[in-house]
């Protein structure tokens, strides 16, 4: 169906199986990042739910949802104001009559919870509203962003019924904002069966199969600290001049040109390859020997789960949910959050390789079961 500024596009399944819980997910869908990957995994794994997804942008998540046969509606924020988006959400809620409304980011939390409240004004039983907090804030809020952050917190405390935290560490942070009884720890989950089918991306190691390949996969944004990865790469080349090694940066973002310039200034252009955004990121991971995650902070990143599920070692900053994910492999954690800390750990791993695996607690089935149990728990409270 053709999209217009005021008419959402709807893609229907050929057949909707009988279900007990009607769920409306509200997601931005502007990027393909960890939150989107986790939402897709949950939506396509959870059982006995009749799911509709309202996206605020066209993009890769929309494509993947449609391919999976999920009812998908696009309310395009590029052509609609927040007020008009809220109006369309209200109409959608009235039409679908969902039992659960599940939101995934700040804007969706605010518009979704207000739409739910208005749509059911005067009705005793409105949809239960759930948010997933995928990670801690990436910046200090000031000005308008501070007001939006306050509004988001207000909605979480007063208009929503549950806050899903993806790690116990994140829950400790969320307790400073939300009542503890609203917070439920449900770790992200990877589709282990699907990941076992992953084949390497042939271009990553093309003509360099005898090289050691180290990569970082993520948005090129300040919190991801790609600069540390680049400086660590330089240190490794300087310390191990005879080592045949190539470094890969996979992702896109506002720091791209700055990071390319840094690579050139350090004389590392022949050792570091920028691949941009890749829709086949799991195939890229399967092609690498080591994946690095040097973010300032993280929740439970999908890239980390996918890396371990593919049997690849993950050198990661000992922070947030990464400590929990790597609790069985503490030798992969980096406490010295500096280029020296990461370069030393990578060299150590080259000399003493390990093949890790992912704990079943981080499977998509475990995540889906826990989420559905939370839905049922919330619905029982109104029976």
SSE topology sketch:
Layout: E1 9-11, E2 21-27, H1 34-45, E3 49-55, H2 60-67, E4 71-74, H3 82-96, E5 100-103, H4 106-119, E6 128-133, H5 143-158, E7 162-165, H6 168-174, E8 183-185, H7 192-195, E9 212-217, H8 226-239, E10 245-250, H9 256-265, E11 272-276, H10 281-287, E12 290-293, H11 302-309, E13 314-317, H12 321-325, E14 333-334, H13 339-351, H14 364-380
Parallel strand pairs: 2-3, 2-5, 3-4, 5-6, 6-7, 7-8, 9-10, 9-12, 10-11, 12-13, 13-14
Antiparallel strand pairs: 1-4
Question: How would you portray this structure in words?
Answer:
By secondary structure, the protein is an alpha/beta fold. It is built from 14 helices and 14 strands. It has an eight-stranded mixed β-sheet, with helices on both faces. Strand 6 (128-133), helix 5 (143-158) and strand 7 form a beta-alpha-beta unit. The longest helix has 17 residues, at 364-380. The two termini are 39 Å apart. Mean pLDDT is 91; it is low at 1-7 and 12-19.
């Amino acid at each position: 169906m053709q999209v217009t500024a005021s008419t959402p596009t709807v893609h229907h399944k050929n057949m909707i199986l009988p279900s007990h819980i009607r769920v409306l997910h509200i997601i931005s869908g502007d990027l393909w990042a960890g939150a989107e990957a986790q939402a897709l995994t949950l939506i396509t794994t959870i059982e006995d739910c009749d799911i509709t997804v309202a996206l605020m942008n066209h993009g890769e998540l929309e494509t993947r949802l449609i391919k999976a046969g999920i009812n998908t509606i696009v309310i395009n924020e590029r052509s609609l104001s927040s007020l008009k988006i809220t109006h369309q959400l209200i109409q959608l809620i009235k039409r679908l009559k969902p039992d659960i409304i599940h939101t995934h980011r700040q804007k969706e939390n605010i518009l979704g919870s207000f739409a739910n409240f208005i749509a059911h004004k005067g009705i005793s039983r409105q949809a239960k509203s759930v948010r997933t907090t995928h990670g801690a804030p990436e910046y200090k809020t000031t000005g308008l962003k501070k007001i939006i952050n306050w509004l988001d917190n207000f909605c979480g405390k007063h208009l929503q019924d549950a806050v899903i935290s993806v790690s116990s560490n994140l829950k400790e942070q969320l307790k400073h904002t939300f009542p503890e009884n609203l917070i439920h720890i449900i770790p992200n989950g990877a589709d282990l069966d699907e990941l076992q089918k992953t084949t390497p991306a042939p271009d990553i190691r093309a003509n360099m199969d005898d090289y050691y390949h180290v990569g970082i996969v993520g948005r090129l944004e300040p919190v991801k600290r790609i600069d540390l990865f680049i400086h660590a790469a330089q240190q490794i080349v300087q310390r191990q001049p005879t080592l045949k090694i190539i470094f890969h940066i996979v992702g896109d973002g506002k720091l791209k040109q700055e990071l390319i310039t840094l690579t050139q200034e350090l004389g590392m252009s022949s050792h570091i390859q920028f691949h941009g955004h890749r829709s086949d990121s799991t195939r890229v991971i399967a092609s690498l020997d080591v994946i690095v995650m040097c973010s300032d902070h993280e929740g439970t990143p999908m890239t980390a789960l996918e890396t371990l599920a593919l049997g690849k070692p993950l050198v990661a900053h000992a922070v947030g949910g990464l400590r929990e994910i790597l609790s069985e492999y503490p030798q992969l954690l980096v406490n010295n959050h500096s280029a020296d800390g990461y370069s030393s750990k990578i060299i150590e791993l080259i000399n003493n390789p390990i093949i890790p695996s992912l704990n079943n607690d981080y499977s998509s089935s475990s995540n889906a079961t826990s989420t559905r149990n939370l839905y049922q728990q919330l619905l029982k409270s109104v029976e």
